[in-house]
Amino acid sequence: MVWRRGLTRASGERPGPAWGRGALLDGVGGCGPVSRAGLEEALFSLGPEELGSLEDKDKPDAKVRIIPLQLQRLFAQLLLLDQEAASTVELTNSFGWTSDEEMRQHDVQELNRILFSALETSLIGTSGHDLINRLYHGTIVNQIVCNECKNISEQQEDFLDLTVAVKNVSGLEDALWNMYVEEEVFDYDNLYHCGTCDRLVKAAKSAKLRKLPPFLTVSLLRFNFDFVKCERYKETSSYTFPLRINLKPFCEQSELDDLEYVYDLFSVIIHKGGCYGGHYHVYIKDVDHLGNWEFKEEKSKPDVNLKTLQNEEEIDDPLMILQAVLLQEENNLITVDQLGQKLLKKMGISWNKKYRKQHGPLRKFLQLHSQLFLLSSDGSTVSLLKSHPVQANSNYQSTNQQSFQMLASEAPGSSDSTACPHWFDINDSRVQPIKEKDIEQQFQGKESAYMLFYRKSKLQRPPEALANPRYRVPCHLLKEMDAANIELKVKRAECDSANNDFELHLHLGPRYRFFNGALHPVTSQAESVWDLTFDKRKTLGDLRQSIFQLLEFWEGDMILSIAKHVPAGLHIYQTLDGDELTLCEVDIADGEDIFVWNGMEVGGVQIETGIGCEPLLLNVLHWESSGEGTTHGRVIESPHVFPANAEVGTVFTAAPTPAGMVLVNRARSAGEESWTAIPQADMKTTFREQGLRDGSSILIQPSHNEESSLLPKQGKWINGMHEIHWIQVKNLCQLESEEKQVEISATIHTVVFDIRIKAIKELKLMKELAENSCLRPIDRNGKLLCPVPDGSTLKEAEVKMGSSLGLCLGKAPTSSQLFLFFAMGTNIQPGTEMEVIVEETLSVGDCLKIMLEKSGLSGDAWHLRKTDWCYEAGEPLCEENATLQELKICSGDTLLLVEGKLPLPGVLKMPIWWYQPRGPSGHWESQDQPHSSSQGNGWRASGTQGAAGHVPAEGSLSYLGDMEISEDAALVDLKFQARALAPSSELAVPAPALLRAWTVESRRPGRLLRADRQQLKEYKLGRRAAICLEPLQEEERLGPQDVLLRTRMRIPGERAYAPAVDLVWDTARGWTAGSLRQKVADLYSLPVEKIEIAKYFPEKFEWLPISSWNQQMTKRKKKKKQDTLQGAPYYLKDGDTIGVKNLLVDDSEDFSTARDDAGRDEQEQLAHGKAGSREVLCAQSSDVVSSAVTPVRPRGPEASLSIHVGSFR
Known about the structure:
Residues 921-948, 1187-1209 are annotated as: Disordered. This protein is an alpha+beta fold and 1209 residues long. A hairpin with a 2-residue loop joins strand 14 (262-274) and strand 15 (277-285). The N terminus is likely disordered.
């Protein structure tokens, strides 16, 4: 749903856009229902003769441009339809979207561009074919100027919206300054090849705005990717933007009138949430004054001078300071140097010390605020524009925030100087007015500005458009909206009647009588009750007056009370007061029973009201009495009504005996009986205090006749309610009995042994079980837990009342024993665990033998592991001589029998692999295992040679075997010992020095192990480390600053690469892109400007170009810390693959191969497959105890957004 124009009413609560679609249509579409001077009116100018008619859309030969027509219709509904919300269903249907696409989260900037593209396609062949370009199209020119010959190389770019950086930028003006003012210098190791000079020269690159559109759209890049954490994140830092901005400093042409460069903010799309989902809403400026909310005008602040400012403790507003200094100068004109000196003299501190860090140099600050200061062409003098008075503002925080408080919202030349700009926040559940200063709250945080919309200040709205929602709306849409409003009015009248009318039941007091504790009709129910339909929005006084008019016979006072039917009859609860209150305010509900009386008596009987004296209908049982006062053998059961606040002793009035014992049936379900005696001391308590309710049974037992109890045989005499405790015991002894389970009465202090013996007796099992049985708790999944010790109480054993225990064969463990579960392997299936009772002083080794014997296994190639908190295999129990008690093994723990003998302490056991490196586009050297050639003592080192062909990206890893080696051994010892493994003997490696060692991570070489003489424990490999060995052609000696890279030259004309060549790059002078490019160029004997390089990411099948272009910085920023290839986004390390392209023979644009395309397609298919299978896996695992960590709810895969448009060419 999208918010509609509900501004003609005083209410500010209007539903807003459900997500980015609605926010975009309000912010971009017509520039909002309160600011429509844009796309909306441009669309309204296109009539049915060009767009067709929606009635003809199903005709085969009709050319109906559905998307523009539906947008026209939606904008007309937003402006004119008298309802709170307008539906976007018909619009999204015209896009060709399904319900799934409508509900999917998408980026609003992406929707903006796709919507513009769809509109352009839909309007081909009409007068609006260039509508989007007229409104939003601009151009940027990129220039490179040669410092030698001054030749200018330029390239022009078109844009419909400007995309600006947010990260490490303070605001919009700072970002535009970096993009369109500062120059990028090419020098030193990053020279520019000039086509005119035909050599490498120094040059400067810059960009400028060449053409500005009437409406400027700015997209803020708030979403980035963290390459360290491998996840997306949202930039929530402060990012300011002005209400009015002068783009003259950023434009190529500056000779036009100043008003051509001034833009006013009129809409802000705001994103609330994170990078994986959120909600959009929009701030919109009321340009056409369609709203009628009024802001209270604040009192204008007095003008200030420099003396006033000097008396303040802290001056944070540079705009106010500079204006005050200029006001004291003749003609408000001064040189920039003198301005800096006077600022120092007046304030005692220079501009650079106080303001430069936050606001930049003084000249730049003056140039950015051209709406206040006029800087000469050579930048030597500055004057103050007279059209902007000085305003005091002690809460100034930044340059951009100050521009919010200048007269920026008022368009130049506007005749209505008193008009206050109104802004509205259009959100899902409400539309509310906001002030301009509220926009500052969207500078930062999880709820912050995401897209900005500016319009040229010189664009003035015609007077007939102000406060006129019908302006420029086509006639056929006006007729449609008028007809729809008439229909809505009829429906509202019907709905109003259905929703606001109450049905009330009036009970007339004169036609009731009081007997047997409640009110009852004198005659029939129909004559005593009148039905009345009444508007719930009217007051209680209106209701009273209406009843007076109905009851012409009524005399005296009229009291209205709420009554309810109870089993005993009708009872009055609450008297209604407050004739000025509406029926809703006095809590009258639809179908309420209203008792009409004089407030005192009914039929001459005083009536008690309220819930305290509510009549209770009780069943009273007692002996039949003879005339002499003696009882007979027949029991009388009769209903009696008692007030809820009456004493229990009054029950004897319903029995022939004046005294005796009173018992209450407190059974929780029908058919059961559980009688409880009420002590004599409680006879003065009320029925309500005893918990009695309608239908409760009371038994009166004569005190002189205790032998003939009225209790039934199955009834149980219980002296107190606090003794009702039960434990359920199930027969799990695999022995037949009449009962499968029994309930044993117990308290928290009952000993487990007593419960077990009672259960054996009630289950009628053999007495021998008393010596060979135990009780075991049963969890909610039906699993038997550790047996409960016989000598403990239920409280000590932590057994709750009402829980279930299983009676099982076998004795419970003693206090010095442990009851353990164990299973084989690491994949535990619920219910497959075995059980064993061992002494807590038993060693791990002995416990392992007992478990192996019970499992029917033999051998010594086994070890024990504990299960962790998520029921998976945890750390092994390494110390075989340690006792279970020392390792803190407790009863109920689960141990796992895992195959494989643990290495001795200080010994590493690791798998050894043989590695044949392959390229990303790759080509096998042979399809066999990567063993050496059999020619003499040599072999092919795959890191430096090979033939071309397509291969998998992981490289060739061949398993050699496991090896045990001491942590104190050196790396060279590992290489030497690895040569002795059986498979590697075929490789005939002559010396360990000709082997390169890597750790194995994710089935690829990970960390390069460099120093041969370094001990293995210094590498901190861990217990689960794996090593792969790579053959070398010659011995290498890598220094601590050397990085080993694998370079591969791209084959011209093919999407493939030549064999890899190892490159050792010395990074002592820095990890710069220029240094790496020079090293690669030297390796292949090519000019550095004639190559392109890129790093390969095999896990993503992607290439990331490495360009010194984006590593350069301007002269102003050279003192900052330079970016390195070690950091984002490259994270260059040993073993990375670098693709090389020779630009002399290969001018293709990308580095990817056909195998990369196939790999990405496979990853996308796997992602979709996993998303579909997660629900199936969750459903299958919901009925069993999961052995894995509960998975986090997966994020849905991102999908591209598209709008389907017909062909109109």
